[in-house]
Amino acid sequence: MNKPPFRWGILGSAQIARKNWKAILNSQNGLVTVVASRTAEGSGRFVAECQAEAPFATPPRAVGRHEDLLTAEDVDGVYIPLPTGIRKEWVLRAAQAGKHVVCEKPCAVSVSDLVEMLEACRRHQVQFMDGVMFMHSRRLELMRTVLNDGQTIGDIRRIDCGFSFNSPEESFNSNIRAHSQLEPHGCLGDLGWYCIRFVLWAMDWKLPRRASGRVLSQSRGQAGQAPVPTEFSGELLFEGGVSASFYCSFITQLQQWANIGGTRGALQVTDFVLPFFGCEAAFDTWQQAQYVHGCDFNLEPHTRRWAAAEYSNSHPSAQESNLFRHFAEQAQSGSLNSAWPEMALKTQQVMQACRESASAGGGVVELGAGR
What is the mean pLDDT of residues 75-97? Predict the structure, then answer.
């Protein structure tokens, strides 16, 4: 027997919530029933604008208090795109209200805050997951198959990735990305989270033994605010000698690349966070070979393109639609997926270690079992 639609409340009207409104519509097993913003006018405007472009059969209610959403009987799960600095309170409240939680990233200000949030979700038997869309792409499944075949890449030795976009300097005065109380981790939280997640995924969720990080540039945003990173680099070292590095920035042109180098070959994806527009999500592998014939040194790339049939966005097959579909299926199954919150916690642990290293001048931070 078909299950009833999973009923979503959207707690906040951030820009990303518009994309996820449509993702819920395209998930084909969910619908938005309530939207809450700081004012009823704001949430009403958000609903009207989204409904005009991607309409639900019954328009969601617009409420002006977050509490009204959490007490609504027609809400099964809550999507929370609120700023990081205030997110913990509303995750805790949602869990206490018995609402399942999809939480934007970075999940929390600190590891201890996230541990408290996850414990509350477990205690109240609600599912928790962060909003990393690429984790739900069919491309990732195909990449795992390639990494595990033992031949195309071999043993992983090095991982490099970067995510950046160029934001005008003047925007830091008004954009919450440079507001230290709302988004204290700056580009490390907003963009580095994806890089760290990709590295952990590639390493089958093993935590690095050591981490280091450096703030390459920073901005104070509004007057009186503490500085936040606008450009950051990190280095991770794993057992067995595998190393990884990442770069994230608010001041470099849009890039979102990842490379995995192994003993037999290498894998490259040039759009690992947001797939390029189209009906395929692709990546390349190559096994470069050099042939020497007397004075001729010929280097051949031996490349291969791999692709998953999946639309980039705004489609039932897109990764954001998969995220909300998978979450609803899990929440309605009656059991909790413990892997999703563990992924978020490990990402938070590595991010915090990199930030601690940067604050101490770039020295190495050990990641132990107690972190």
Answer: 97
